[in-house]
Write a structure and sequence with these properties.
Number of helices: 10
Number of strands: 15
Radius of gyration: 22 Å
Shape: globular
Structural class: alpha+beta
Distance between the termini: 29 Å
Strand content: 15-25%
Strand order of the largest sheet: 13-12-11-14-10-15
Largest sheet: 6 strands, mixed
Order of helices and strands: EEEHEHEHHEEEHEHEHHHEEEEEH
Length: 390
């Protein structure tokens, strides 16, 4: 159930000393397969961390043999020196891997770098670079779980997945528990596949997948500087799936990881699906769902087990979506508390005692639909994001 489930991949996760806690903080994923295709999707934040800028360049080259990831520091807003640190990490990783596996013969331009943690501070390279060598020594087919643990920050558990095709597999790992917002979430994600697929096929599948999964989770409306999702192909299965087959598997893997991210959102007591139907367009449905997901009054009401449909309707009304205010229906956990923009069934019928909540909004403006996933806003979220820098 990890990035090493597909054939042709090894991984490792170790403690390099980047975290003061001494927890694992450095991961490495290596592609040993006959192919080395790559695709990537990155944060839309205009303030991008040095590893994002570096890895965007690497992905344009179309070949990646290794991904080195660290937690314990974002290497964001660190200027030219921070970018040089990223470059040095890639160079060091390439040289160290080549020294132990000469057949790889990779250069820095075939090494993607990802970082996560506190913004504004440079990484302790005197710890990170020796850590890379330790990770190389620990590489193995069973290293996927350790790698997933090493990229955690405020996550309470590692997040891994597998989606299987006919004779080929997609595996993945991700981290993220806060600043989960579209384009992407505050997350690092590495997906691997042993399918035969070039960069163009990988890019098409990945963009189709992220648009309906990671781009539709919205925990707190905040967008990170480091968000990165990579899809690597080893070709080790010898099977070339159709575009539809590859896309379906990547969507399945991304959806599973996205749900794990939102389930582990900081301080969350509710996992909320906002289903918008009857929209004039998919874009309208997404806009409405996102507006409700980001509305603090809605999120705090749900934390208090209050099916406050008036707050939901007010959030819908802030959008530019096509609808008539007196034509909107709202259901909370199957109870239609609002019909035609007014009170309907008794809100006391809504059971919010469990963790899962479904809000269904019918705009009666068309035939399009979309779902946005979010969580409630709790005391624990405020405490976690005020008690220390993250």
């Amino acid at each position: 159930m990890t990035v090493t489930t597909p054939r042709g991949f090894r991984a490792a996760g170790i403690a390099a000393g980047l975290k003061t806690s001494g927890a694992a903080d450095l991961a490495l994923v290596v592609n040993d397969g006959p192919d080395a295709g790559i695709a990537g999707v990155f944060t839309a934040n205009r303030v991008k961390a040095a590893p994002v800028l570096w890895t965007q360049q690497v992905v344009r080259g179309g070949v990646v043999r290794a991904v080195v990831l660290n937690s314990g520091g974002a290497n964001a807003c660190t200027g030219p020196a921070g970018f040089q640190d990223t470059h040095a990490t890639a160079e060091h990783t390439a040289a160290a891997l080549t020294s132990v596996s000469p057949r790889l013969m990779l250069g820095a331009g075939e090494v993607a770098v990802c970082s996560t943690g506190l913004i504004g501070e440079r990484l302790p390279m005197q710890k990170l670079l020796p850590g890379v060598r330790s990770a190389i020594r620990g590489l193995g087919r069973d290293g996927g779980t350790a790698a997933a643990e090493a990229i955690m920050t405020t996550d309470t558990r590692p997040k891994t997945t597998v989606a299987r095709g006919s004779g080929w597999t997609v595996g993945g790992m991700a981290k993220g528990a806060g600043m989960l917002a579209p384009a992407m979430a505050t997350m690092l994600c590495v997906l691997t596949t042993d399918a035969v697929a070039g960069p163009e096929a990988l890019d098409a599948a990945l963009r189709a997948a992220t648009s309906v999964t990671f781009d539709r989770i919205d925990s707190d409306g905040c967008m990170s500087t480091n968000d990165t999702v990579l899809l690597l192909s080893s070709g080790a299965s010898g099977v070339e799936p159709t575009a539809a087959e590859l896309t379906a598997a990547v969507i399945a893997a991304c959806h599973d990881l996205a749900q794990q991210l939102i389930a582990d959102a900081e301080g969350a007591t509710k996992q909320i699906a906002i289903e918008v139907v009857g929209a004039a367009s998919e874009a309208d449905a997404v806009e409405v769902g996102r507006s409700v997901a980001r509305n603090n009054l809605v999120k705090t009401a749900l934390f208090g087990n209050d099916p406050n449909w008036g707050r939901i309707l007010a959030a819908v009304g802030t959008t530019a979506a096509a609808f008539e205010p007196d034509g909107v229906d709202v259901a909370v956990n199957g109870v239609w508390v609002c019909r035609s923009g007014a009170a309907a069934e008794d809100r006391a019928k809504v059971d919010l005692s469990g963790r899962d909540v479904t809000i269904r909004i019918d705009l009666h403006a068309g035939s399009s639909a979309a779902t946005i996933w979010t969580n409630d806003l709790s005391h624990a979220y405020v405490h976690e994001n005020s008690a220390y820098s993250s």
